[in-house]
Amino acid sequence: MNRKRIRLIAFFITVLGSAWAIASAESNADGGGIVGVGDYIVKVDNPTYKKGNGPKVFLDEGHNNYQTIADRYMGFAQAIEADGASVKPFREKFTAQSLAEVDVLVICNALNDKNAKEKEEINKWQLPTPSAYTSDEIEAVHSWVKAGGSLLLIADHMPFPGAATEMAAGFGVVMQNNFAFDAAFTYKPGDMNLITYYKKPPKPSVGKLFKHKISRGIDRVVTFTGSGFRMKPGIKHARILQLGDGSNTAWPTDHVDISMSTPFSAGVGLLQGATLPYGKGRVGVFGEASMFSVNYAFWADNYPLGFHNPEAPDNQQFLLNVIHWLAK
């Protein structure tokens, strides 16, 4: 990657990261920005399950999670409920007892107390990014999945992959504490770094959407930055979303302060989506969160980040397909 390209990427992330931080602070301080789905109506024309008869989906909200049903994952919950499943917050520690009634556990963008506290105090996340879970909790989740549970693990851009590293490692997933950038990113104002995946990419630089029950009936899937991860050698898995040639990853120590000294690397071949069996259970891993919900970039005129974006018409069905696969 040439120095000019690195400089442009660094400039973009510095500006975008600062905007995220400022917007978050303003929203927390005075209620600015759109909370939840706004005016968007989430609906499912042909629900898979009769209301209340679908799987019991629980969204982790007990580990400083950036996404909760009350705000950034309101759209996520409404889509799944409109399909006939139930969605409830999970605010307990992970134990065999607390997980006993869960069909599908969703862990999205959890944080260690250290990183959650620094976000409140200095309005940014920085390294190190310790695990969001205790060793006992990690063992409880692994044992639960091995016995037949289903886990959807989502870790967006840095610092979230760092907080999920130990949880993911036991499943053979190598989290990468980075920011992912599409090969077609232009570095111009207004370019929101949409990463589009096709089953038949028009060129090598475009992301690949692999054939799977999850991608059945899906033409394309769009993510909104996020991170790229990889699998340990020899781990049985199915690729779902894979970054194309020319994609890049940035590895900051501070999510709002990137410079020419920030490490960058090629993103080609890294994953933003994969599934794997684990004992009697199933695991879905994804490197971006907004793709599964309804969010707004209030630092960019409420630009739609999520399945309500006109460029992402299949994302909502993709979410439902993920839940269907996990629910077996």
Furnish the topology, listing elements before pairings.
Elements: H1 3-30, E1 56-60, H2 74-82, E2 86-90, E3 104-108, H3 113-122, H4 135-146, E4 150-154, H5 160-169, E5 173-174, E6 179-181, E7 194-198, E8 207-209, E9 220-224, E10 230-231, E11 238-242, E12 248-250, E13 264-266, E14 271-278, E15 281-286, E16 294-297, E17 303-306, H6 315-326
Parallel strand pairs: 1-2, 1-3, 3-4, 4-15, 7-8
Antiparallel strand pairs: 5-10, 6-12, 7-9, 8-11, 11-14, 12-13, 14-15, 16-17
What is the tally of beta strands? 17
Strand content: 15-25%
Q: Helix content range of the residues, please? A: 10-25%
Number of helices: 6
The name CATH uses for the topology is: Rossmann fold
CATH class: Alpha Beta
Cα(first) to Cα(last) distance is 43 Å
Number of separate structural domains = 1
Strand order of the largest sheet: 2-1-3-4-15-14-11-8-7-9
Q: CATH homologous superfamily, by name?
A: Class I glutamine amidotransferase (GATase) domain
Rg, please? Answer: 18 Å
Main sheet, how many strands, which sense, barrel? 10 strands, mixed
Find the structural class using helix and strand composition.
alpha/beta
Quick check: average pLDDT? 91
> Element order, helices and strands?
HEHEEHHEHEEEEEEEEEEEEEH
Q: What is the correct CATH architecture?
A: 3-Layer(aba) Sandwich
Q: Which overall shape is indicated by the principal axes computed on the Cα atoms?
A: globular
- The parts where pLDDT drops under 50 for at least 5 residues are 17-31
